[in-house]
Structures are given as C-alpha cells and as structure tokens.
Amino acid sequence: MVRSFAGLCLSGVTTAMLVGCHGVTRPPALEVPGAKTTFLFDAVEGATRRLHFEAVPDPFGGPGTVARGTAGLHGGQKLVFLNDRGFFAMPADATGRSVVIRMAVRGQRSVRIALVAKGKGFSYRATLPAEGKWCDVEVPLSSAGNRVPAGAKIVDVTLFGSDPSPGAALYVHSAVLTLRQP
Q1: How far is it, in rounded angstroms, from Cα 141 to Cα 99?
Q2: DSSP letters along 99-118, please?
Q3: CB 56 within 8 A of CB 66
Q4: What residue numbers bound the domain in which 150 lies?
Q5: Total domains, the chain
Q6: Contact in structure between 157 and 177 (CB atoms under 8 Å)
Q7: What CATH number has the domain bearing residue 70?
Q8: Total-model pTM
Q9: Mind listing the pLDDT tens digit for each residue in 35-93?
Q10: Where would you tag: which of 43, 78, 91, 128 has the fewest CB atoms within 10 A of its CB?
C-alpha cells in the first residue's frame, strides 16, 4: 500500500555523529495512523552500516537529513541499511504487521524493497504515486510467505530504483515496523 505524505512535523533531534560527520539532524519520526509503530532506521540512527548511501539535506524542503542512494547494478539507484543485531525478528503471525518506509524518487516511480535475514529474504515491488514527493510504502510481512522463518532476524533492508538516467534519485526518510490494531 502506498500513501502520499501530506506534511512533515517540525521537530527534529540533533545527533552527534553519522559516519564520521558532526551536526547531522534527524528528520521527524514517521507516524502511521491507526498503527502501533517501532522505529527501525533513518539517515542518522538504527543501522550499524549503510552501503550505497549519502546523507543529504531533505531535497523537498523538510527539516533534517535524509538518505540518498547511489548507482547500483545496471545504473539504477540502490540504498542499503544493515543492522548486525537485526532490525526485528520475523513474527510467527505476520497478520497486520508491515514495514513502512517513507521514501521518494526522482525519475521512474517503480521500486523494489528487499528484506533479508541471514540466508533468507523476500522482495516487494511498489510504484510510488508521484515523483518528487515523500510517500509511505507499506511492505506487509505476510508477503514473505514461508521464505523467512519465524524468529529470523531481518538484518538487511535494501531499496532499488530502476531508473538509470543521470537525474534519477532514490531517497529514504525513515522506516518503522507497524502493527495494525483490529
């Protein structure tokens, strides 16, 4: 499910360090209406390592710093967030549970999101409703089927943008794990 992002909160938290840089500001937290959320990562916190990653000011005028991908396979954009301890453990019952990623693109709007546990993973494809705007992409954990066993820790969240053109860009604001209450 993809929802357009209607605005950003004006609060921000300053952190002391990001990949050796000082004074990087964390963007406001992602909130998902009607769901209990657990913060996973943004450009500043939550990941132990990042690949194909550049920390940049919000290109759409919001406060804080966001992540921008770099060139990946076949010239498309790629952005990797890694957490050695795991972002979360795959639940036995994934009903109502999702990873929601606030992201934006310049160029083609189709993206692929891979959630990977050690040796196991699954991909989810989405098309953002607009270019150049923050959108929330919801990845239902039930779409993993039996590809990731219950209890396996998701250690890698990789995003792919398919546009190889020079002006293409893939941005991530933040990601949360959600549980929708019935």
Answers
A1: 7
A2: EEEEEEEES--EEEEEEEET
A3: yes
A4: 2-180
A5: 1
A6: no
A7: 2.60.120.430
A8: 0.83
A9: 899 999 999 999 999 999 999 999 999 889 999 999 877 778 999 999 999 999 999 99
A10: 91
